[in-house]
Amino acid sequence: MLVDSHCHLDFPEYAGERDAVIERAREAGVGAILTISTRLSTFEGVREIAEAFDDVYCSVGVHPHQADAEDGATDAQALVARSSHPRVVGIGETGLDYYYEHSSRERQRAGFRAHLAAAREAGLPVIVHTRDADSDTMDILREECGKGHVSGLVHCFTASAALARCALELGFYISFSGIVTFKKADELQAIAKDVPIDRLLVETDAPFLAPVPKRGKRNEPAFVVYTAEKMAELKGMAPEALAEATTDNFFRLFTKAEKPA
Question: Can you tell me whether residue 29 is helix, strand or coil?
Answer without folding.
Answer: coil
